[in-house]
Amino acid sequence: MRRSLYHWFETHRWPGDALIAGAIVLASLFVYSSSPAQLGYSVGAALPLFFRRTYPVPVLIASIFIELGVRIAVRGPLLGSVSALFVIYASVVYPADRRWGWLALGAGLFGAVAAPLAWSGSYSRPVLAGLMALALTLVACAFLAGERRRAGLDYRAAELNALTERTRLLTAERDQRERIAAATERTRIARELHDIVAHSLAVIVVQADGGAAAAGKNPALAEPVLRTIAETSRQALTEMRALVGVLRSASPPSVPDTFAPQPGVADIARLVEQTRGASLAVTLALPEPLPLLPAAVDLTVYRVVQEGLTNVLKHAGPAATAKVEVCLRETGSGFDVLVEVVDDGRGAAVVSDGAGNGIRGMRERLDVHGGSLWTGPRPGGGFRVNALIPLPSVRDNR
Fold first, then answer.
1. Reported confidence tier of residue 252, pLDDT bands at 50, 70, 90
2. By the 8 A CB rule, do 297 and 391 touch?
3. How many angstroms separate the Cα of 26 from the Cα of each of 71, 75, 115, 240?
4. How confident is the model at residue 251 (pLDDT cuts 50, 70, 90)?
5. CA 246 vs CA 84, 170, 236, 249, 320: distances in Å
6. d(CA 242, CA 192)
7. CA dist 288 → 154, 291, 337, 390, 396 (Å)
8. Handedness of CA 134, 137, 139, 142 (dihedral sign)
9. How far, in whole angstroms, is CA 98 from its chain's centroid?
């Protein structure tokens, strides 16, 4: 009951203050109906209470002047003096500057002492002492009640500010995570696009150049060349569709999933055959049986081999040969996946145009798995790509 009544006064500022002021006015009309001076003081002291929470400082100043005027014209305790207690409380709680509360306390204590002293000719000394003690106690209680309420409001304001700041920080952190995730996803997509497009176009360009050179001498060679170009383009298109599928936020449940799975170690043999179709002699060594690797590692191994063969096609020269080897090496805590792509082409004689992203893409893929990459020309000619990916365990794909 007390809590609900208090809540009503807090949420209904104008009606609550009007109710307090009206109650004092009605009580004054009943008590001082035969005394116009006392009635006028009590009503004049109560009316400003209607504005005590909205305009606490003007109400405090007005109340001080009213009290001073009354103490000159009227002698003895008055019902209107109760208004001063509400003014003290409001002056402590509601002004932004807390010095107004101390001013209200000082004025209240001064009035509690000065008024009984001014009545010394009308009351006995014990009565005056009792009135003074009562007035001082009421003033102190009003001030302490206001301080308690002010402390509660300050605590709630600080808590609200803390929650607001926490919400702001959490929102900023969430936005930062989203930006990082988006940047990471863009990097991954760019890496995938490079691996898919660079290798496929390298094979297509080599096949097209070879077919164009041989078409005049032996038109029959055009058919297998065009078939290789078509197969390479079809595979690139399939992988591109799979990558575009990742970019879709959602798909209707009724639409079947027609995208091909991501390639892995099992697809390296087909990749090598495709590269051989581009007139590059490639030897392949894979572990038997094929290991069952985590999907992300499986794709990384495939992309490293794909990028290595793409570099051979682009830079090694027309008469180069290449070797691809994937093996497992057991360690004390698990296994290492070793990938090597070497060729005997131009090697250090190749001049980079600085526009390639293949090696950087391979290094980024390996960094995700805690792996390492070594690339560079081989002594005596050619180029070498070595990658290592540590794994805690591995299973045979039987």
1. very low
2. yes
3. 22, 21, 24, 86
4. very low
5. 73, 28, 16, 8, 37
6. 11
7. 73, 8, 14, 19, 9
8. negative
9. 38
pTM for this predicted structure: 0.45
Q: How far apart are CA 87 and CA 52, in angstroms?
A: 7
The 8-class DSSP code of residue 325 comes to E
Backbone angles phi, psi at 376, to 5 degrees: 160, 170
Determine the Cα–Cα distance for residues 275 and 297; give it in Å rounded to an integer: 22
Q: What is residue 143's predicted lDDT score, i.e. its pLDDT? A: 92
CB 265 within 8 A of CB 291: yes
DSSP, collapsed to helix, strand or coil, labels residue 291 as strand
Token pair listed for 21: 């002021």
Type of residue numbered 5: L
Give residue-wise pLDDT tens across range 291-327: 888 888 888 899 899 888 888 887 877 778 899 999 9
Q: Give the residue from 38, 134, 145, 137 showing the smallest Cα distance to 89.
A: 145
What average pLDDT score do residues 145-173 get? Answer: 88
Place of tokens 């803390």: 162
The DSSP output letter for 34 is: T
46-72: average pLDDT: 78
Considering only residues 264 and 42, tell me which one the structure prediction assigns the higher pLDDT.
264
Half-sphere exposure of 381 (CA within 13 A, CB side): 9
Helix, strand or coil, per DSSP, at residue 391: strand
Please count the residues of the chain: 398
